[in-house]
Specification:
Elements: E1 4-8, H1 12-24, E2 28-32, H2 39-45, E3 49-53, H3 59-71, E4 80-84, H4 87-90, H5 94-97, E5 102-106, H6 111-122
Parallel strand pairs: 1-2, 1-3, 3-4, 4-5
């Protein structure tokens, strides 16, 4: 069974870049250009990792989605990689956000660094689904 990664990003070119990079590494990639309002959809995908554009849908929408995913019983154990170009908005919150299963990569990102962070976060994916 392939490792499933869900990428939520509203820029089509960046979304396609994630798909190409991750599929080349052997991951099964699901993409969406908007936030899921029904977390049951995410539960059906059953991802091992979620990559989220934190500024998707406006400044607060990504944060609200992060909070929702992080506290929902069906998705709370899924590691999260937050990607954003809004480095200045995150500097004061970065220490609160970073946990073993949540990390941040700033855009534009270095491909090798992104892949290393993905691999690291996947070590925190729920064992029963990997």
């Amino acid at each position: 069974m392939k490792t499933r990664i869900l990428v939520i990003e509203d820029e089509p070119d960046i979304l396609e870049l994630y798909r190409l990079l991750l599929e080349t590494e052997g991951y099964e990639v699901y993409t969406n250009d908007a936030i899921y309002h029904d977390l049951a959809v995410i539960e059906q995908i059953d991802p091992h990792l979620i990559i989220l554009d934190l500024m998707i849908g406006g400044k607060q929408a990504g944060w609200n989605f992060l909070e929702k995913v992080h506290h929902h019983p069906g998705t709370s154990s899924v590691p999260l990689l937050l990607c954003t170009a809004a480095e200045h908005d995150l500097r004061e919150k970065i220490d609160e956000l970073k946990t073993p299963s949540i990390d941040v990569v700033f855009k534009p990102f270095d491909v090798e660094n992104l892949l290393q962070v993905v691999q690291k976060l996947l070590t925190y994916a729920p064992i029963e689904t990997c």
